[in-house]
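Students often ask why we bother encoding 3D structure as a string. The short answer is that it lets us treat folding as translation between two languages. Here is a chain of 346 residues written in the first language.
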Amino acid sequence: MAKIHEVAEAAGVSISTVSYALSGKRTISAETRRRIDDAVRELDYRPNAGARMLAGRRTNIFALTEPFRADTYAPAHMAFVLATSIAARRHDYDILLLTDEEASAGMRRVATSGLADGVIVLDVAPDDERVAVARLLKIPAVFVGVPTDHDGLVCVDLDFEQAASIAVDHLVDAGHRAIGFVGHPAEAYLRSNFPPRVRAGFEARAADRDVRVAIGSPAIGGSSRRAAESVHATVASLLEQGVTALVLHCDDTAHAAVTEELARRGLRVPADISLVSVGATFDTSAFHPPIDAVPLVPQASCDLAIDLAMRLLSEAPPEPGVHLIAPEYRDRGSVAAPPGHATTAG
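And here it is in the second language, the structure alphabet:
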């Protein structure tokens, strides 16, 4: 890697002149700056982070706070970490991953050390402790998720309420009048910001469309077999309540357990029962049968979060607020009219 004295030699100037040109602390003639810029480019010179911080320049690093807990669902969380990293690289930024369960301490440490230009906040809880920290930081923060108290914050997320509404509309328009909901375990509705939003959107739209609903939340803990048994029991209970369609807002193993239970009962999708997945970060076309989805796309959320973070570093930063991504319905053939539903020929 090139050193600053090599840049100075190539440009025919002193080391201090190169330093002044890179830091912007003194005015440099256009011709001198051109020679320095050419030398920097040809030698692929990159100032170290410490030098950039001392000069008051950007570090080209975003801190990404993603606390890993014992109950963290790794595939979904790592999908967001990867998507954030890809989005950052488009702006020539790297990611400093903060995985400490004491997430607020990590944010303070990075902000006070000057290691990062901003913070991206993942796995947002309704009463997230990082909200108070973000309001005190001297560097910008963008939340991928919407905490209950989001006043003055910049937040990005899928419009989960609308995603659930779209799922309900597709089922009701197909003729379903009783719809079941297979949700996350009860603990998730206290720990995460999006499960309550999906369920609330589902219930509100069902009420608007005057259809009957039944809610199920499988338990967690124990072996994978016991978790699957809990999903099976949830599906059985919903079917006993007369539902003809299911909206799934749960992880991929729960999706698989739902289809297993339906197959065990001899129920065909969509001839006997319809399925729609909401908020999945995984590919629902890989299930047998494939499942219609209103997905959560990590790259869309993270692209917008990084774009907003870059704008917060500019001279015209965006106003605080919640930026919701419009959901899209993906038809994979898992929705049809319920058995016995009368259809009118066009």
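Translate back mentally: The radius of gyration is 26 Å. Keep this in mind for the problem set.
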